[in-house]
Specification:
By secondary structure, the protein is an alpha/beta fold. It is 42% helix and 18% strand. It has a 7-stranded mixed beta sheet with strand order 18-19-17-16-21-24-25. A 5-stranded parallel beta sheet has the order 5-8-11-1-12, sandwiched between helices. It has a 3-stranded antiparallel beta sheet with strand order 3-2-4, covered by helices on one side. Keywords: ATP-binding, Cell membrane, Hydrolase, Membrane, Nucleotide-binding, Protease, Serine protease, Transmembrane, Transmembrane helix.
Length: 659
């Protein structure tokens, strides 16, 4: 199979305003085939690798590390965002572990100490035969005992009836029956229990112990309600293997390992070090510490995973052991947009269709839509997302739509329709919020307002929303005037960005801020505000309030400001632009450095004008309503900016002197 990548469209960097016509270059690129599919009629023609490790997309460096770790049986810590393939890598590692003869684990009663059962290991498949043979022998003994008991009882009853001693014979028969019940053949009490059965395993075992409690992870002893009178279950029959024992000579996978209790992590660390671990009561319903087996083999490879925050909850000795006897791997959430990686995405679609087994394959135009959605979800220029679990959800939703329509192949229109049904909760919340804010005039995309700006934010990963920000400059009531007071559940970074804005306001306004207390309100931010992407919006609202210049309410904006007034890049540019369009905005201001990251859907192209900005003066020039006050402010800001540039002569920059 061979693909050919389309040549990239050159973009002009001199444009200041991105008119709808300018976006046509991007649109044309989107409508052309992403790849040259040659004789590929659908994803059914794409070969799917048989091993899981070869089905992992975009993590070549991580795969190489996993292969090295598998060869030497090293532990692994995988850190990355949800859905990038951590569990798939762990399963793939189990398939490529060096071939070792797997073992069955049997547990026998201990004649000398019933509460200390004996452990025995045998080659895989032999354990079941041993148990079957032992139970067959015990069954023969039981049948013979039953026959003898029946004959004895029958003989006594006949003799009693013959001699007229019926009552005595019945009592004697009952006594014999009771004795027979109490007597258990030695073969029955000595029959082993099969703790771990590897008879049908072709590869090394893989155990997913994510969220497992201590008993399931480390093994447990079941409670016995009949502990006397000969009715009790033998101790070895009540012992249950833990996942660490079932993963012997295989892989034990634990996601979000930092959420596991420290005590359990300590016990797990002991099992890793000793490669064997005795089973005793772990849960409230177990037999406690009365029963403790011999040490059970648990020579597993640990693959732990989670996001970066999981490190805070990891036992320091656990992480030290992984670092000392294994590898730590940080997994990417995107890959470069190249021909090779687009091919891998097509392979991913074929894998998802095959693994699902209930949806049709994808036609080339549908594959193009999946690739385009991967570009959009990456949030970066020339990148494709690696959060493939979520993208797989879109693949399955598209297949469901195609089945509903009675189509043999998934087409592009099915993918586009599926995007409406596969929206995340955050997207649904954002859509509903936009409707509600329109109904209650929280966002009014017309006219001009002093101190009120339409900021943009992101809910979740990629759901944009319009977040109004209001500012008011009130006369100071104390000697400690000049404060900026922000409300709306601001996080630490957001609070710091508000304070940084004050330096710009002092620099660019003619007002003595010590005479004012400036109040900034993030309207209806029930879930709080974090990040500094609203700093441009805050500065605009405050300057409008101080200078009493109205803001154009048909314009929304986003961007981060540094203390020198430069507009810095932000995340979620595409989602924010689409949210502005949905809210009825006519223009949106974004950082110029984010311009190449924009991949809005076609329906928004004619709805909104995208204007890139580099400085705060660019922002104010495009959002403040024209008038003498605006002209004076912009002229002052530009003159300040030019003076700053003149402080260091260009010749000095080009020809620095060296000592």
């Amino acid at each position: 199979m061979k693909f050919e990548e389309k040549e990239p469209i050159e973009e002009s960097s001199d444009d200041v305003v991105l008119e709808p016509e300018v976006t046509h270059d991007v649109v044309d690129e989107e409508t052309k085939p992403m790849l040259d599919y040659e004789n590929i009629k659908s994803s059914q023609d794409i070969e799917v690798p048989p091993l899981l490790i070869d089905q992992v997309i975009g993590h070549e460096e991580s795969i190489e590390t996993i292969k090295k770790a598998a060869k030497q049986r090293r532990n692994i810590l995988l850190i990355g965002d949800p859905g990038v393939g951590k569990s798939m890598l762990a399963k793939g590692m189990a398939q490529i572990l060096p071939h070792e003869s797997l073992q069955d684990i049997l547990i026998y009663p201990n004649v000398e100490d019933n509460n200390h059962p004996i452990i025995r290991t045998v080659p895989a498949g032999e354990g079941k035969k041993i148990v079957k043979a032992t139970k067959g022998s015990a069954r023969g003994h039981e049948e013979r005992k039953t026959l003898i008991t029946t004959l004895a009882i029958g003989g006594i009853l006949i003799i009693g009836f013959f001699y007229g001693r019926i009552l005595e014979s019945i009592i004697a028969a009952a006594l014999i029956l009771l004795i027979s019940i109490q007597i258990k053949p030695k073969n029955t009490t000595m029959s082993p229990k099969l703790l771990v059965n590897n008879e049908e395993n072709r590869f090394a075992p893989f155990m997913d112990a994510t969220g497992a409690h201590a008993g399931a992870l480390l093994g447990d002893v079941r409670h016995d309600p009949y502990q006397s009178g000969g009715l009790g279950t033998p101790a070895h029959e009540r012992v249950e293997a833990g996942m660490i024992h079932k993963a012997n000579r295989g892989v034990l996978y634990i996601d979000e390992i930092g959420t596991m209790s420290m005590k359990t992590q300590q016990e797990l660390l002991s099992a890793m070090q000793e490669k064997k671990y005795s089973i005793t009561g772990q849960s409230e319903n177990s037999s406690g510490a009365m029963v403790r087996s011999q040490a059970v083999p648990c020579d597993f490879v640990l693959v732990a995973s989670g996001n970066i925050q999981v490190l805070e909850g990891m036992h320091i000795a656990m992480r030290s052991r992984i670092r000392g006897y294994g590898y730590e791997v940080f997994m990417k959430d995107y890959m470069e947009d190249t021909t090779e990686n687009r091919e891998k995405l097509v392979q991913f679609v074929a894998q998802e269709v095959k693994n699902d087994g209930r949806i049709p394959h994808f036609a080339p135009d549908a594959l193009d839509e999946i690739i385009m959605e991967a570009k959009r979800r990456s949030g970066k220029q020339n990148a494709l997302t690696l959060r493939l679990r979520e993208l797989g959800g879109l693949v399955r939703s598209s297949g469901d739509v195609a089945i509903e329509k009675g189509a043999d192949l998934v087409k592009a229109e099915h993918v586009l329709e599926a995007k409406k049904f596969s929206r995340t909760l955050e997207q649904q919340i954002a859509d509903r919020s936009i409707i509600q804010r329109k109904e209650y005039s929280m966002v009014n995309a017309e006219g001009g307002r002093v101190g009120l700006v339409n900021g943009l934010a992101v809910i979740g990963d990629r759901s944009g929303i319009v977040s109004p920000i209001a500012a008011e400059a009130a006369p100071a009531q104390s000697k400690n005037g000049g404060q900026i007071i922000a409300t709306g559940k601001l996080g630490e970074i957001a609070s710091e960005s508000v304070q940084n804005v004050s330096a710009l306001i002092k620099k660019y306004t003619n007002k003595n801020l010590s005479d004012y207390d400036i109040h900034v309100q993030f309207i209806q931010t029930y879930d709080g505000v974090e990040g500094d992407s609203a700093s441009v919006s805050i500065a605009t609202a405050v300057i409008s309030a101080v200078e009493e210049i109205p803001i154009d309410q048909t314009v929304a904006l986003t961007g981060s400001l540094n203390v020198r007034g430069d507009v810095m890049p932000i995340g979620g540019a595409t989602a924010k632009i689409e949210a502005a369009a949905e809210s009825g905005m006519k223009k949106v201001l974004i950082p110029k450095s984010n311009l190449k990251d924009v991949m809005i859907e076609k329906k928004y192209e004619d709805m909104i004008e995208i204007i890139p900005t580099e400085t705060l003066s660019d922002v104010l020039e495009n959002i403040l309503i024209s008038g003498s006050k605006k002209d004076q402010l912009i002229e002052k800001m530009k003159s300040i900016g030019s003076k700053v540039a003149e402080k260091v002569p260009q010749s000095t920059i080009n020809n620095p002197t060296t000592n």
